[in-house]
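User: We ran a pulldown and think these components assemble together. Before we commit to crystallization trials, I'd like a predicted model of the whole complex to look at. Sequences follow.
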Amino acid sequence: MAEFSTRYSFGGDEFIFAELSEEMNLEVNFRGIAITRKLKEKAFPGILDICPSNASYLVRFNPEEIDAHELLAELKQLEREVANLDEIEIRSRLVDVPVLFQDPWTHEAVMRFRDRHQDPESTDLEYAAQINGFTSEEEFIQAMTDTPFIVSMIGFVPGLPFCFQIARQEEQIEVPKYVRPRTFTPERTFGFGGAFSVIYPVQGAGGYQMFGIAATPVFDREQRLPDFRDSMVFPRQGDIFRYRSVTREEYDAVRKRVEAGTFEYRKQEIAFTPYDVLRDPEKFSEMALGRLYSD
Amino acid sequence: MIKVVKPGLETTVQDEGRIGYYNIGMPPAGAVDQFAYAVGNMLVGNEAGAASLEMTYMGPELQFQQDGVITLTGGYIPPKINGVEVPMWKAISVSSGDVLSFGIVKHGARSYLAVAGGISVPPLMGSRSTYTLCGIGGYDGRPLKAGDVLTIGRMRARAVKAGTKVPDKWIPSITKPHEIRIVMGLCSYRLTDESKALFLQTEWTVTPEANRVGYRLKGERLGFVPRDQPFGAGSNPSNVVDLGYPIGSIQIPDGVEPIALLNDAVTGGGYATIATIISPDLSRFAQVKTGEKVRFVSISYEEARQVRIDFKQRLTQINEHLEGAM
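Assistant: Here's a predicted model for the assembly, 621 residues in total across the polymer chains.
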């Protein structure tokens, strides 16, 4: 990783933005988690929002209660304190997320917005497989489903998980976003943009490549499903999602359970240190999948 | 109770906003003109934070089904009671059966109706604000429709005398082109120096894509400093590794048509942000209409802090004045 010193900047009179790195990697994401967690523990008065993201974070504060320059000095101090990432433990969940690839609903949206795409002659999946050097779409789907992703950021709209694959950079998939954003994306679309996969919580605009549709929600405004009892948003930063390719039959069966309000994600609690992941991502991924499907 | 006879273009229940959930991707929502909203509550003697109606461009037609005190603040969409025009920024008595309607918008984009007691809808995550994108908060999570019936709440702090008004010196005047103050920064290092200067020199025109999420602006094409795109960012020079967007932040997808985010903002994404509108000026920006022109004026953080202090002081003075008048 290239040497980079964090860029701090005021966002108007209420925000501080800290960019830890211009490029995405697992280490920088863990660093952001560590800093923002410590900041939360300090519970300074006047902090309104702490928003860790992929390689940066955002703090919203009330300048009547906390001086911006003092807060900035605190953030710099916290950054020095988390130099050793092994001191933090991340407690999160391993989650099985069933996805129907090449489904009729996102396919229809893919075809509707061909004029906004880099390659109007192919589908999003064909295009992405090809530019990432895969010989078939099946192989490409396998690469996305064999290795789990870490939820590295929540945002855009409520509950949207940005997911980054737990793999070495040379193994990771990277795709451009649409040339011009779409005005429509089906709810639960499994999308990919830059090095991130996402699930769109609600129908709306979007610019990520569309590969399939998740059978299960990440946002539940009525909080009907057991996984949403505490929050209308399911994903949390640090969660580990395994996207599993399912048949239409299984997709329909899961949808029925979701609609009946009985669906519950297959998930396992997990605790790990950044070093567990960074030392050997392959081994960590293997261990995570083993645990998730152990019973 | 208040019956909605005609809903207007987009009339929603709003308050100070749903603060503290940005990290799950939930923007605050809330009144986009917080100044007009706050003064409205003061005029009818409400506790700060009582919910009001935000009306955009074309006002609704509302029938009061009980006596009460109301006020209209913000952009000038001429209000009428039983067809007779009534002044804004003034507490007005209404009687059961009275009908409030509006003429064609004269200046500004949004008016606020505050009712003594506030609009009563169930609070969600600490706020009654409507966030239509996810269909939550406010009245059934959506703009009002004909036939809806609103209940008046009990968030009154003090009794008010009808006829009480805000002195003219405190009523915001609208100058054109709109000058909106910003603090440059965030990812502004991505813009070339020429483009930074051009951004500040340009008179930007608000496009029809202007709503509570944000305003898209038309003007000049801006350029980014060439670089090998960092891993994970995406291939366009305006792309960055997806990050958080402050309320008021300005991004420039592909260097064309900057987007300035408002209270229903998308909370993050993959475009370089280059500046942030200071919070007191968000209230003014929210009154800019499609087709109007905006210039951005760069100020330092310290200057922004001073503008904020003045803004809060003005609200305190108005409150003290109105308390004295009651």
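The longest helix of chain A spans residues 26-42. That may be worth checking against your pulldown data before setting up trials.

User: Thanks, that helps.
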